[in-house]
Amino acid sequence: MFFKDSLEYQALPLPDRFDWGEKERLAKSRSFYNWMRKRHSVRDFKKTKINKEIIENAIRAAGTAPSGANHQPWHFVAISKLEIKSKIRIAAELEEKEFYSGGAGDEWLKALEPMGTDESKPHLEDAAWLIVVFAQRYGFFKDGSRYKNYYVPESVGIASGFLIASLHHAGLSILTHTPNPMRFLNELLGRPKSEKPIMILAVGEPSSQATVPVVAKLKKTDNEIMTIHE
Protein backbone atom coordinates (compact mmCIF):
# COMPACT_ATOMS: atom_id res chain seq x y z
CA MET A 1 0.00 0.00 0.00
CA PHE A 2 1.39 3.40 -0.91
CA PHE A 3 0.35 6.91 -1.87
CA LYS A 4 1.38 9.05 -4.82
CA ASP A 5 2.38 12.00 -2.62
CA SER A 6 4.31 9.93 -0.08
CA LEU A 7 6.79 7.56 -1.68
CA GLU A 8 9.85 8.07 0.52
CA TYR A 9 11.29 5.28 2.68
CA GLN A 10 10.54 5.32 6.40
CA ALA A 11 11.68 2.72 8.93
CA LEU A 12 9.51 1.27 11.69
CA PRO A 13 10.86 -0.88 14.53
CA LEU A 14 9.79 -4.51 14.13
CA PRO A 15 6.32 -4.57 15.73
CA ASP A 16 6.18 -8.28 16.56
CA ARG A 17 8.90 -10.60 17.79
CA PHE A 18 8.75 -14.25 18.78
CA ASP A 19 11.51 -15.14 21.19
CA TRP A 20 10.88 -18.86 21.12
CA GLY A 21 13.53 -21.41 21.86
CA GLU A 22 14.52 -24.13 19.42
CA LYS A 23 12.35 -26.71 21.20
CA GLU A 24 9.21 -24.58 20.88
CA ARG A 25 9.94 -23.68 17.25
CA LEU A 26 10.40 -27.34 16.39
CA ALA A 27 7.16 -28.29 18.15
CA LYS A 28 5.23 -25.58 16.34
CA SER A 29 6.66 -26.56 12.96
CA ARG A 30 5.68 -30.19 13.51
CA SER A 31 2.22 -29.21 14.73
CA PHE A 32 1.58 -27.02 11.68
CA TYR A 33 2.78 -29.72 9.29
CA ASN A 34 0.62 -32.36 10.96
CA TRP A 35 -2.40 -30.09 10.73
CA MET A 36 -1.83 -29.12 7.10
CA ARG A 37 -1.43 -32.74 6.03
CA LYS A 38 -5.06 -33.22 7.12
CA ARG A 39 -6.17 -30.80 4.40
CA HIS A 40 -8.10 -32.55 1.63
CA SER A 41 -9.75 -31.19 -1.50
CA VAL A 42 -13.35 -32.41 -1.56
CA ARG A 43 -16.11 -32.05 -4.12
CA ASP A 44 -19.06 -33.04 -1.96
CA PHE A 45 -20.28 -30.38 0.48
CA LYS A 46 -23.04 -30.14 3.03
CA LYS A 47 -25.61 -27.48 2.20
CA THR A 48 -24.99 -25.74 5.50
CA LYS A 49 -24.27 -22.13 6.38
CA ILE A 50 -20.88 -20.93 7.57
CA ASN A 51 -20.56 -17.78 9.68
CA LYS A 52 -19.55 -14.82 7.50
CA GLU A 53 -16.99 -13.64 10.06
CA ILE A 54 -14.97 -16.84 9.58
CA ILE A 55 -14.69 -16.06 5.87
CA GLU A 56 -13.85 -12.41 6.56
CA ASN A 57 -11.10 -13.38 9.00
CA ALA A 58 -9.61 -15.81 6.49
CA ILE A 59 -9.55 -13.10 3.82
CA ARG A 60 -8.00 -10.68 6.30
CA ALA A 61 -5.27 -13.28 6.92
CA ALA A 62 -4.72 -13.54 3.16
CA GLY A 63 -4.34 -9.77 3.06
CA THR A 64 -1.30 -9.99 5.35
CA ALA A 65 0.70 -11.88 2.71
CA PRO A 66 3.91 -10.34 1.34
CA SER A 67 3.66 -8.78 -2.11
CA GLY A 68 5.80 -7.10 -4.74
CA ALA A 69 6.57 -3.52 -3.59
CA ASN A 70 3.79 -4.06 -1.01
CA HIS A 71 1.18 -3.22 -3.65
CA GLN A 72 -1.08 -6.04 -2.44
CA PRO A 73 -2.44 -6.75 -5.95
CA TRP A 74 -5.44 -8.84 -4.99
CA HIS A 75 -9.15 -8.70 -4.35
CA PHE A 76 -11.35 -11.45 -2.92
CA VAL A 77 -15.08 -11.72 -3.58
CA ALA A 78 -16.96 -14.00 -1.16
CA ILE A 79 -20.40 -15.28 -2.21
CA SER A 80 -23.00 -17.19 -0.24
CA LYS A 81 -26.03 -16.06 -2.25
CA LEU A 82 -27.40 -19.10 -4.10
CA GLU A 83 -28.56 -17.06 -7.10
CA ILE A 84 -25.02 -15.86 -7.81
CA LYS A 85 -23.47 -19.26 -7.10
CA SER A 86 -25.89 -20.83 -9.58
CA LYS A 87 -24.90 -18.34 -12.28
CA ILE A 88 -21.24 -19.09 -11.65
CA ARG A 89 -21.89 -22.82 -11.89
CA ILE A 90 -23.77 -22.50 -15.18
CA ALA A 91 -21.04 -20.35 -16.75
CA ALA A 92 -18.23 -22.52 -15.38
CA GLU A 93 -19.82 -25.74 -16.61
CA LEU A 94 -20.08 -24.31 -20.13
CA GLU A 95 -16.33 -23.71 -20.11
CA GLU A 96 -15.68 -27.10 -18.52
CA LYS A 97 -17.79 -28.92 -21.12
CA GLU A 98 -15.58 -27.54 -23.88
CA PHE A 99 -12.50 -28.40 -21.83
CA TYR A 100 -13.48 -32.04 -21.30
CA SER A 101 -14.73 -32.39 -24.87
CA GLY A 102 -11.18 -32.08 -26.14
CA GLY A 103 -10.26 -28.46 -25.66
CA ALA A 104 -7.75 -29.39 -22.99
CA GLY A 105 -5.79 -31.78 -25.19
CA ASP A 106 -5.24 -35.52 -24.74
CA GLU A 107 -2.26 -35.25 -22.38
CA TRP A 108 -4.03 -32.97 -19.91
CA LEU A 109 -7.21 -35.04 -19.93
CA LYS A 110 -5.16 -38.19 -19.40
CA ALA A 111 -3.48 -36.58 -16.39
CA LEU A 112 -6.89 -35.81 -14.88
CA GLU A 113 -8.32 -39.32 -15.22
CA PRO A 114 -7.10 -40.51 -11.76
CA MET A 115 -8.82 -37.48 -10.21
CA GLY A 116 -12.26 -38.57 -11.46
CA THR A 117 -13.30 -35.07 -12.51
CA ASP A 118 -15.68 -34.04 -15.29
CA GLU A 119 -17.66 -30.99 -16.42
CA SER A 120 -20.27 -31.33 -13.66
CA LYS A 121 -19.53 -28.88 -10.82
CA PRO A 122 -22.32 -29.13 -8.20
CA HIS A 123 -19.91 -27.96 -5.50
CA LEU A 124 -20.17 -24.45 -6.94
CA GLU A 125 -23.74 -24.36 -5.62
CA ASP A 126 -23.54 -26.73 -2.65
CA ALA A 127 -20.55 -25.20 -0.84
CA ALA A 128 -21.54 -22.62 1.76
CA TRP A 129 -19.25 -20.01 0.23
CA LEU A 130 -17.41 -19.35 -3.00
CA ILE A 131 -14.39 -17.07 -2.81
CA VAL A 132 -13.21 -15.71 -6.15
CA VAL A 133 -9.58 -14.58 -6.18
CA PHE A 134 -8.78 -11.66 -8.48
CA ALA A 135 -5.29 -10.48 -9.44
CA GLN A 136 -4.95 -6.73 -9.95
CA ARG A 137 -2.60 -6.15 -12.88
CA TYR A 138 -2.54 -2.42 -12.19
CA GLY A 139 -4.08 -0.02 -9.72
CA PHE A 140 -5.16 3.59 -9.45
CA PHE A 141 -4.22 6.48 -7.20
CA LYS A 142 -6.98 8.55 -5.64
CA ASP A 143 -6.62 11.13 -8.44
CA GLY A 144 -7.41 8.44 -11.01
CA SER A 145 -3.88 8.06 -12.38
CA ARG A 146 -2.70 4.53 -12.98
CA TYR A 147 0.26 2.63 -11.52
CA LYS A 148 1.75 -0.76 -12.31
CA ASN A 149 1.74 -3.71 -9.91
CA TYR A 150 4.77 -5.98 -9.68
CA TYR A 151 5.19 -9.73 -9.24
CA VAL A 152 1.43 -10.09 -9.45
CA PRO A 153 1.17 -13.89 -10.03
CA GLU A 154 3.68 -14.58 -7.27
CA SER A 155 2.01 -12.20 -4.82
CA VAL A 156 -1.50 -13.48 -5.46
CA GLY A 157 -0.29 -17.07 -5.28
CA ILE A 158 1.19 -16.47 -1.83
CA ALA A 159 -1.97 -14.71 -0.62
CA SER A 160 -4.10 -17.58 -1.93
CA GLY A 161 -1.95 -20.01 0.01
CA PHE A 162 -2.49 -17.94 3.16
CA LEU A 163 -6.24 -18.00 2.47
CA ILE A 164 -6.41 -21.77 2.03
CA ALA A 165 -4.31 -22.37 5.15
CA SER A 166 -6.50 -20.00 7.17
CA LEU A 167 -9.71 -21.67 6.04
CA HIS A 168 -8.27 -25.08 6.85
CA HIS A 169 -7.17 -23.76 10.25
CA ALA A 170 -10.86 -22.96 10.87
CA GLY A 171 -11.77 -26.58 10.11
CA LEU A 172 -13.31 -25.95 6.70
CA SER A 173 -12.84 -27.89 3.47
CA ILE A 174 -11.75 -26.12 0.30
CA LEU A 175 -11.73 -27.02 -3.37
CA THR A 176 -9.73 -24.93 -5.81
CA HIS A 177 -11.53 -24.48 -9.12
CA THR A 178 -9.95 -22.83 -12.15
CA PRO A 179 -12.26 -22.67 -15.17
CA ASN A 180 -10.50 -21.15 -18.14
CA PRO A 181 -11.30 -18.59 -19.40
CA MET A 182 -12.99 -16.96 -16.40
CA ARG A 183 -13.75 -13.48 -17.72
CA PHE A 184 -17.45 -14.04 -17.06
CA LEU A 185 -16.63 -13.51 -13.38
CA ASN A 186 -15.66 -9.87 -13.90
CA GLU A 187 -19.03 -8.98 -15.35
CA LEU A 188 -21.02 -11.17 -12.98
CA LEU A 189 -19.30 -9.81 -9.86
CA GLY A 190 -18.83 -6.21 -11.01
CA ARG A 191 -15.03 -6.26 -10.99
CA PRO A 192 -12.96 -3.89 -13.18
CA LYS A 193 -10.99 -4.83 -16.30
CA SER A 194 -7.76 -4.27 -14.39
CA GLU A 195 -8.45 -7.46 -12.43
CA LYS A 196 -8.01 -11.01 -13.68
CA PRO A 197 -9.88 -13.88 -11.98
CA ILE A 198 -7.37 -16.52 -10.92
CA MET A 199 -9.42 -19.15 -9.12
CA ILE A 200 -12.62 -19.96 -7.30
CA LEU A 201 -12.44 -21.54 -3.86
CA ALA A 202 -15.46 -23.60 -2.85
CA VAL A 203 -15.56 -23.48 0.94
CA GLY A 204 -17.71 -25.36 3.43
CA GLU A 205 -18.22 -28.54 5.40
CA PRO A 206 -17.68 -31.87 3.65
CA SER A 207 -20.73 -34.06 3.24
CA SER A 208 -20.96 -37.43 4.97
CA GLN A 209 -20.44 -39.02 1.52
CA ALA A 210 -17.34 -36.96 0.69
CA THR A 211 -14.46 -38.88 -0.88
CA VAL A 212 -10.99 -38.11 -2.18
CA PRO A 213 -9.18 -39.81 -5.07
CA VAL A 214 -6.67 -42.42 -3.96
CA VAL A 215 -4.02 -40.68 -6.05
CA ALA A 216 -4.51 -37.47 -4.04
CA LYS A 217 -2.90 -39.17 -1.04
CA LEU A 218 0.24 -40.02 -3.01
CA LYS A 219 2.66 -37.22 -2.19
CA LYS A 220 6.21 -36.79 -3.40
CA THR A 221 8.92 -37.87 -1.00
CA ASP A 222 11.07 -35.40 0.93
CA ASN A 223 13.97 -36.06 -1.45
CA GLU A 224 11.77 -35.09 -4.38
CA ILE A 225 10.53 -31.79 -2.94
CA MET A 226 13.53 -30.47 -1.02
CA THR A 227 17.28 -30.10 -1.18
CA ILE A 228 19.17 -29.08 1.96
CA HIS A 229 22.64 -27.51 1.88
CA GLU A 230 23.82 -27.46 5.49
Compressed to H and E, one letter per element, the order equals: HHEHHHEEEHEHEH
Low-pLDDT segments, ≥5 res: none
Task: Give the overall form.
Answer: globular
CATH topology value: NADH Oxidase
The number of helical segments is: 8
Mean pLDDT: 93
In total, the number of strands is 6
Helix content: 25-40%
The largest β sheet comes out as: 4 strands, antiparallel
Any idea how many domains?
Answer: 1
CATH class: Alpha Beta
Strand order of the largest sheet: 1-2-6-5
Strand content: 15-25%
Gyration radius, to the nearest Å? 20 Å
Distance between the first and last residues' Cα? 37 Å
Q: Supply the CATH superfamily name.
A: NADH Oxidase
CATH architectural label: 3-Layer(aba) Sandwich
Brief overview:
With 230 residues, the protein is α+β, with helices and mostly antiparallel strands. The protein has one domain: NADH Oxidase (3-Layer(aba) Sandwich). The chain contains eight helices and six strands; from the N terminus they run H-H-E-H-H-H-E-E-E-H-E-H-E-H.
Structural description of this entry:
The chain has helices spanning 22-36, 52-62, 82-103, 106-112, 123-126, 152-169, 184-189, 222-225, and strands at residues 74-79, 129-136, 138-140, 146-148, 173-177, 195-204. The chain has 230 residues and is α+β, with helices and mostly antiparallel strands. It has one domain (40-219): 3-Layer(aba) Sandwich (NADH Oxidase), CATH 3.40.109.10. Helix 2 packs antiparallel against helix 6 (152-169). The protein is globular. The model has no long low-confidence stretch (mean pLDDT 93).
